[in-house]
Design goal:
Aspartate Aminotransferase, domain 2; 13 helices; alpha/beta; Aspartate Aminotransferase, domain 1; 405 residues; seven-stranded mixed sheet; 2 domains; single chain
Length: 405
């Protein structure tokens, strides 16, 4: 291989999508509520819920919209305090602000997972928990759910990066009250933009559906598990009709037509992504300057990227490593060093005063990130591994590992 592998392009949309896309383009029928029944968005919702083992699903304009609607569906008081990991994407605290709530940032450790001691300390006075499984790394959901349930706090799972991940065999996104997923281009399912939320709670789904933009009686086109709405769901819809604002954050039929044929690809993409990640992680862990945090015991990951920590370098050496990797054809993002990175909490100036989170700050200053699509081949992985190992050796090879000098 003479050229670096392309890690940026998504997988091609399955050929089976083309006929439905052509039909929609010919008819102009792109709005989810035009058809009397079985619009592509409605079919996607039912199929996604079935795939996840959930009762209800609602497709939205983005995962951020799904997070926002989840908070509104919970009917939290204005300025409710919502706990989130400090390692997440800026859209997560933004969705909380959009829902008239206040994000409370919780420390994250070197393994990219929430610090349970800080989490427990910040639970008193909180109104809800939103757990971002950032970059597919699952925090200890046993402890989080036990602490949250003891405090009688609802848990929303931001599973944008975790479709296909499981915890004790249970699908991530089905553990909390609501799970939210992304269809943005770099996610496992790709419609360019889009998202979806799932829940087993008829009251929550009814509120979310109406607020998503189901005006008049369009909520009747949202179906339950058996294809027809149960009496409890019908009653919930009727109870909230005309009593909630309409935020119009719907998914289009065209986006749904792009996603639906990809559902069958999820098991393969999960399998190949895990294989690629674990192979490259083992290679990198052989370096004294690199550590890839282990998964937690109950976790089965579905990664489409790779994160690793640099051990011992100065900031200048870390920047030199990035440059050396780029010269060899591999782009490495260090979350805390990349300019204006939307995953570094101190860049979220819209929150006001930057909180003091030394553990998370330390992690972000050494945490490296590179894309690792499931479609990559073994030669691709070897190219990437060789480049990263050569880059870190070029920068750190002449230093003493024991003392980091």
């Amino acid at each position: 291989m003479t050229q670096p592998p392309n890690v940026y392009d998504a997988e091609p949309i399955p050929e089976s999508a083309r006929a439905e896309i052509d039909r929609l383009l010919s008819s102009g029928d792109l709005f989810r509520y035009t058809a009397a029944d079985d619009a592509p968005v409605a079919l996607l919702e039912r199929e996604f819920a079935d795939m996840m083992g959930a009762k209800y699903a609602l497709a939205t304009a983005s995962c951020s919209a799904a997070l926002f609607l989840s908070l509104k569906a919970l009917d939290l008081p204005r300025d409710a305090r919502v706990l989130i990991p400090a390692f997440t994407f800026a859209a997560v605290p933004s969705a909380i602000l959009h829902a008239d709530c206040q994000p409370v940032l919780v420390e994250v450790g070197d393994n990219y997972r929430i610090d349970l001691e800080d989490f427990a300390a910040k639970l008193p006075g909180a109104d809800a928990v939103m757990i971002s499984h950032m970059r597919g790394h699952t925090s200890d959901m046993d402890a989080i759910m036990a602490l949250s349930e003891a405090a009688d706090l609802p848990v929303i799972e931001d599973a944008a990066h975790s479709l296909g991940t499981s915890w004790h065999g249970r699908k991530i996104g089905t553990i909390g009250r609501i799970g939210c997923f992304s269809f943005q281009s770099y996610k496992l399912l790709n419609s360019g933009e889009g998202g979806i939320l799932i829940t087993d709670d008829p009251e929550l789904i009814a509120r979310a559906v109406i607020m998503s933009g189901a005006y008049e009686h369009n909520w009747k086109k949202h179906k339950g598990p058996q294809g027809d709405n149960s009496p409890e769901l019908e009653q919930a819809f009727a109870r909230w009709q005309n009593k909630l604002p309409l935020y119009n954050t719907r998914l289009s039929n065209l986006a749904a037509a792009i996603v639906r044929p990809q559902l069958a690809e999820v098991p393969r993409r999960v399998r190949d992504g895990r294989r690629n990640h674990d192979y490259l992680a083992a290679r990198l862990n052989a370096s004294p300057w690199i550590s890839v945090p282990d998964k937690l015991g109950p976790e089965q990951r579905a990664p489409d990227s790779l994160q690793f920590n640099l051990e011992g370098p100065t900031v200048d050496q870390t920047r030199a490593f990035q440059a050396a990797a780029a010269e060899r054809g591999v782009s490495i993002q260090v979350f805390g060093l990349s300019s204006d990175n939307a995953r570094a909490f101190w860049n979220w100036e819209f929150l006001g005063k930057t909180p003091d989170l030394p553990r998370t700050r330390s992690m972000l200053m050494k945490a490296c990130d590179t894309r690792l699509p499931a479609r990559l081949t073994r030669p691709d992985l070897d190219w990437i591994g060789d480049a990263i190992l050569a880059a870190v050796e070029a920068v750190m090879g002449g230093t003493d590992r024991q003392f980091g000098t």
